[in-house]
Design brief:
about 375 residues; alpha/beta; Aspartate Aminotransferase, domain 1; Aspartate Aminotransferase, domain 2; 2 domains; seven-stranded mixed beta sheet; three-stranded antiparallel beta sheet; 14 strands; about 40% helix; binds 4'-deoxy-4'-aminopyridoxal-5'-phosphate
Length: about 375
């Protein structure tokens, strides 16, 4: 018999207008997009091997070297969100038989450890980056999250690179939540691999993960016993595609053209302000946040000021207050703040002030909305 071909009914909901309200994004990311970045994304597409686009990729690489503060030739952006930077770093730097030391100060160390365990790597998790752990365990790679977005802690990195290099380990750093918003210098700190994301301080849409590999890291990758199990994340292939080596550029994948336009524009904005000026602005505005919190009887979650991530402030939820009701009050005003993550759920709010959102007037608005919503709950 003949089978009747079915004609699917188009989903009614899909045919409705897409709803995208305007929103002030003061959560842990994404942050608000700068207008010029949004405009850049609307530019016409070019072919990803056209000379004009190759120039845009080259400019993007220069911008990334500038914000990471590195001369690493292998500096480019992985097509994917921050997680793709983590995956790219791990699948290239580690192979079976390697030991991976993870400094776990929150969710992101756990995530890196989990990924390495999936890869069959020997993983050791420690709570602080102390030298003994590195000397005893002799890992091939040490992971540290610079800006821990689940707690609002910035991890000091001074001296860790030296300890790593003395024992032959590579230092891998996550700067997804901190790049451009907290002091960081890849080369001075002896960082061998660092990755980030576009949707935090850079105010670009999510979709690319800036990444940089030191010569030492590239040498380890070149001397692997086994091939990198991922083609898409292969650092040497990606490096060739981004023009990091002397070979003729090969097709690797189709770069997300519009997102590269956005990143290039975002980096130009940072370059115009100056990377150090951008970082200083985040520190100064963080001071303002602490002052305003205190004036409203609210407390930062991170006690020591030098441990606070300037671009992402965590605030203690006062006893008896439901964090969600307060966040909902702000959302009703079109302002997003977030609650905790993992062990901090219910205990903190997370207020991201990334890039253009690190602004005095905007900060005053957000903290006054927060203070008002908390007071309402306390007086009930
Ligand atoms: N690391 C850190 C420190 C982050 O804050 C995030 C995102 N919140 C990630 C990694 C993962 O990035 P993405 O969500 O863009 O994949």
């Amino acid at each position: 018999g003949t089978m009747a071909l079915s004609t699917p009914v188009p989903p009614a909901s899909l045919l409705e207008e897409m709803v995208v309200p305007s929103r002030q994004l003061f959560g842990p990311g994404p942050s608000n997009m700068a207008d010029t970045i949004a405009d850049a994304q609307h530019r016409n597409l070019l072919g990803h091997l056209h000379p004009e686009f190759i120039k845009i990729m080259a400019d993007t690489r220069l911008g990334l070297q500038y914000v990471f503060k590195t001369k690493n030739s292998y500096t480019f952006a992985v097509s994917g969100t921050g997680h793709s930077g983590m995956e790219c770093a791990l699948v290239n730097l580690l192979e079976r038989g390697d030991r991976f030391l993870v400094v776990e100060i929150g969710l992101w160390g756990k995530r890196a450890a989990d990924l390495a365990i999936r890869m069959g790597i020997d993983v050791n998790i420690v709570a602080a980056p102390h030298g003994e752990a590195i000397e005893e365990y002799k890992p091939q790679v040490v992971f540290v999250c610079h800006g821990e977005s689940s707690t609002g802690v910035v991890q000091p990195l001074d001296g860790i690179g030296e300890i790593c290099h003395q024992t032959g380990a590579l230092l891998l750093v996550d700067t997804v939540a901190s790049l451009g918003g907290a002091r960081f210098d890849a080369d001075a700190l002896g960082v061998d691999c660092v990755y980030s994301a576009t949707q935090k301080v850079l105010n670009a849409p999510p979709g690319l993960a800036p990444i940089s590999f030191s010569d030492r890291a590239i040498e380890k990758i070149r001397n692997r016993k086994t091939r990198v199990a991922s083609f898409y994340f292969d650092a040497l292939e990606l490096g060739n595609y981004w023009g990091c080596d002397a070979e003729i550029k090969r097709y690797h994948h189709t770069a997300p053209i519009s997102t590269v336009y956005a990143l290039r524009t975002a980096l130009a904005i940072v370059a115009k302000e100056g990377i150090d000026a951008s970082i200083d602005r985040h520190y100064q505005n963080a001071q303002l946040i602490y002052k305003l919190l205190e004036a409203n009887s609210l407390e930062p979650f991170v006690e020591k000021e030098e441990w606070r991530l300037p671009c992402l402030t965590t605030v203690k939820v006062p006893a008896g207050v439901d964090w969600k009701e307060v966040a909902d009050d702000l959302m009703a005003e079109g302002v997003e703040i977030a609650g905790g993550l993992g062990p901090t759920v219910g205990k903190i709010w997370r207020i991201g002030t990334f890039g253009l959102n690190s602004d005095k007037t905007k900060i005053e608005q957000v903290i006054s909305l927060l203070a008002r919503a908390v007071k309402k709950r306390c007086n009930l």
